[in-house]
Design goal:
The complex is a heterodimer of chains A (about 110) and B (about 575). Chain A has about 110 residues and is mainly alpha-helical. In chain A, about 65% of the residues lie in helices and about 0% in strands. Chain B has a domain of about 230 residues. Chain B has a two-stranded antiparallel sheet with strand order 1-2. Chain B has about 575 residues and is mostly helical. Chain B contains 24 helices and 2 strands. The longest helix of chain B is centred in the N-terminal third of the chain and has 32 residues. Chain B is about 70% helix and about 0% strand. The chains are: A mainly alpha (about 110), B mainly alpha (about 575). Chains A and B meet through helix 2 and helix 3 of A and helix 6 and helix 7 of B. Chain B: It is found in: Cell membrane; Membrane. Chain B: One of its GO terms (cellular component) is plasma membrane. Chain B: Belongs to the CPA3 antiporters (TC 2.A.63) subunit D family. Chain B: It is a multi-pass membrane protein.
Chain lengths: ~110, ~575
């Protein structure tokens, strides 16, 4: 499972970083979204991976970190997702405004001269 | 601490939040918004000054107020901490916010929707970032601050602003991701995100966890350095600040100081002298990065030909100066750096506002400066609509503007007699003096910092003189810039603040020294934050008040001594680094 998650984070992060450096605004926003997914998975991984652990408490048992998943990274991921969602939506609006004002979807607002 | 006084700690966050939310609800009635905004910002300034006095009155290096939301113990709950450093920056942010707000009343607040609520949310984010005592809330307040700053940068719209805003938002979104990466790595290594708890745990970390923590701190630091505009991650700064409207740019210049503040706070807490094997981690990077930033900023100051970008370059120089000073890791130099922040923030803010008035009076294409500025594509069609003359030319306008410009130049270049010089002196004196008194040679890096500061000052003088000659002797021949009282008043106010700092340099420096001392020796901070609040020991028995909590060790077996002041409950509940699957 560790390998799978690590590869998933790597692929998402790599694709995100590549897209982030592309010249089209749409590629940039998709790149940022992919990077955000990679980071969220990474935060989740920082709580350590564990299969079949109870989310908070196992039925009938008392709470101990040896038995259940670490809830804090999950809370962090939730916050990060909400904030990331809001800022991405804002970025999308700016992106559309830039497209409307400059007439191109290049990040610099003008096509590169060839 | 009397209870109602302790609640002042959260006022700088709640006040702008409520004011901003109310403004959003009363859509369309601008005069009401103006009144609410002025009242809220003035109250914020008053509260911040009160907090500064409270923080200064606190004994020793302990923070004056540790505000636990819901009275949860610090390791679990959200905690706000008011100490000298935070209170000082709160006051600066509020003063700058008030100046920007008053300035915008002349006409800038009318060029786009929602200026007033965004300004309030911006101040809320700034205040929260200064007050918060844990890393994740720092992230949240950073995001509040950034989201508002996107709105401020885009305020007024127009192609130039949207283009600059697009870059600014993309860079800051990426920086926020770095912030998250760094914070989660630190959590993975140390098992806590509370800053005080982290400081207590860093010395005892296992070597592999330490590596992880340092990696996380480095990534986190990169996010802050992007905010502070360090070379080579600060290229966005002059473009963005130049594109923003004047009041927005003035307030945005405070954002780069937030990056500096976060670095200073976290670096000294996590990697101060008490941090064991990690002590001083990354200090050289700050120092060298600061020097490179000064060099880059100095070149931009000389090379820049339009005024807003010149101000942006000055922001870069001041960021570099602060990074180099902090990176040198000496208490007295940090004290000088704090004094420098107090002097540079109003000076740069006043300069951004002043530029807006000056630009208005210039005949486009009247001098070489304007011609080259045109050639670089900075002349925009907005000039016709936004640059409409507002108000009447008042007698003595030119003299007043000239004096203000001169004061800005002196402050930014760090020349006597104003506080900019005192700040540089306060940084350089200890940097050279300590080794000098001890008889040893002054280290090479100290000489480099000296050279960088002096040369950047010289470059600023040259650039400002050139600009001043072109402006005041060149282009104002026949039409004076027109301005309103509400525009010049904030500029003069901010500059008077610097004059006040000059006159009262003694008390101000003493305050800065106390703040720097507390930041460099955070044991008191850690102890005050982590001190276990006694919960109900048995059902039916009321918990003693806050004062009782300070008197002795809590019933949970928490020892008040450091570094083992971490409550046992926190240790067992926080995931330990070895607990990996």
């Amino acid at each position: 499972m560790e390998l799978l998650v690590a590869l998933g984070i790597g692929v998402l992060g790599g694709s995100g970083a590549w897209l982030l450096f592309r010249p089209r605004t749409f590629q940039v926003i998709i790149g940022l979204s992919l990077l955000a997914y990679a980071v969220n998975l990474f935060i989740f991984g920082m709580g350590r991976l564990r299969s079949n652990a109870a989310p908070i408490l196992a039925p009938g048992g008392t709470g101990s970190l040896a038995q259940h998943a670490d809830p804090l990274p999950q809370a962090l991921v939730l916050t990060a997702i909400v904030i990331g969602f809001a800022t991405t939506a804002l970025f999308l609006v700016v992106l559309l405004a830039a497209r409307g004002l400059t007439g191109t979807d290049h990040v610099d607002g003008r096509e590169r001269r060839r | 601490m009397r209870d109602w006084l302790a609640h002042l700690a959260i006022a700088p966050i709640l006040l702008p939040l409520l004011a901003g939310a109310t403004m959003v609800l009363i859509e369309g009635r601008r005069p009401v918004k103006v009144v609410i905004g002025l009242a809220s910002t003035t109250a914020m300034l008053a509260i911040a000054v009160a907090l500064a006095f409270l923080a200064d009155a606190a004994p020793g290096a302990a923070p004056a107020i540790v505000y636990r939301l819901g009275d949860w113990p610090a390791a679990f709950g959200i905690v706000l901490v008011v100490d000298r450093l935070a209170a000082m920056l709160l006051a600066l942010a509020a003063a700058l916010g008030l100046a920007a707000l008053v300035f915008s009343l002349a006409h800038w607040h009318r060029v786009g929707a929602h200026f007033h609520p965004i300004l309030q949310f911006q101040l809320m984010g700034l205040n929260g970032a200064f007050l918060t005592g844990d890393l994740f809330n720092l992230f949240v307040f950073f995001e509040v601050m950034l989201a508002a700053s996107y709105g401020l940068v885009l305020h007024g719209s127009g192609t130039a602003r949207v283009r600059a805003g697009l870059h600014y938002i993309a860079i800051n979104l990426a920086a926020s991701l770095l912030f998250l990466l760094g914070a989660s790595l630190i959590y993975g290594a140390a098992g806590t995100l509370n800053m005080a708890d982290l400081a207590a745990r860093v010395p005892g970390l296992a070597p592999d966890a330490r590596t992880l923590l340092e990696t996380g701190a480095a990534i986190l630091g990169t996010a802050f350095l992007i905010k502070a505009g360090m070379w080579p991650v600060g290229f966005w700064l002059p473009t963005t600040y130049a594109a923003a409207t004047a009041p927005a740019a003035a307030l945005l210049s405070m954002l780069s100081k937030v990056g500096i503040y976060a670095l200073l706070r976290l670096w000294l807490l996590l990697f101060g002298a008490q941090a064991g094997a990690s002590a001083g981690f990354g200090g050289d990077w700050l120092l060298v990065g600061g020097l490179l930033t000064i060099a880059f900023g100095t070149i931009s100051v000389l090379a820049t030909q339009d005024l807003p970008r010149l101000a942006g370059a000055c922001v870069l120089v001041s960021s570099g100066t602060l990074l180099a000073a902090i990176g040198s890791g000496q208490v007295a130099v940090t004290a000088g750096a704090l004094f420098y922040i107090a002097s540079a923030v109003p000076a740069i803010g006043a300069f951004f506002l002043l530029i807006d008035i000056l630009e208005r009076g210039r005949e486009v294409g009247a001098d070489v400066l304007a011609v080259t500025a045109e050639a670089f594509g900075e002349g925009d069609e907005e000039e016709a609509t936004e640059g409409e003359a507002v108000g009447l030319a008042i007698p003595g306008t030119l003299a007043l503007l000239g004096a203000a410009f001169l004061a800005c130049a002196l402050l930014l270049a760090g020349l006597p007699p104003l506080s900019g010089f005192l700040a540089k002196f306060a940084m350089l004196g200890p940097l050279l003096g300590r080794s000098g008194i001890a008889g040893g040679p002054v280290p090479l890096l100290s000489w480099l910092v000296l050279a960088a500061l002096v040369l950047s000052g010289l470059a600023t003088v040259i650039a400002m003189t050139r600009t001043g000659i072109n402006l005041f002797w060149g282009s104002f021949e026949d039409h004076l810039p027109r301005m309103r009282l509400t525009e010049i008043a904030p500029v003069v106010g901010l500059l008077l603040l610097c004059v006040g700092l000059t006159v009262l340099a003694g008390p101000a420096l003493r305050y800065a020294e106390a703040a720097a001392g507390a930041a460099h020796a955070p044991q008191d901070y850690v102890r005050a934050v982590l001190h276990e609040v006694p919960r109900r020991a048995a059902p039916g028995r009321a918990a003693p008040g806050r004062d009782g909590a300070r008197a002795g060790p809590g019933p949970g077996g928490a020892a008040p001594g450091m570094p083992d002041g971490v409550p046992d409950g926190a240790r067992s509940a926080g995931r330990l680094p070895e607990g990996g699957a």
